[in-house]
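Following up on my earlier thread - several people asked me to post the actual chain instead of describing it. Fair enough. Here it is, all 74 residues.
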Amino acid sequence: MMELLVAIAILVALSAIGITVSRSMQETAHLTKATQKMRDLGSAFVGYTADSGGHLPFEDAPGSDDWTNAAKPE
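Reply from S.P.:
Thanks for posting it. Predicted structure:
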């Protein structure tokens, strides 16, 4: 009976370690994917500004939050 309890305790400990490592790996993968998306967006903006004389596109959303207001120093 004692051997069975020890075996179960070992399995629980190993599964807890495995779950922690799995979550860490998933978080690293998500961070890598997000970083790559940010690089892609940066490359797209660089390409767009190169094609449009150094200007970013104007936003067509309603409201006062646009590129012109974002460029103001304040």
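The chain has two helices and no strands. That should answer part of your original question.
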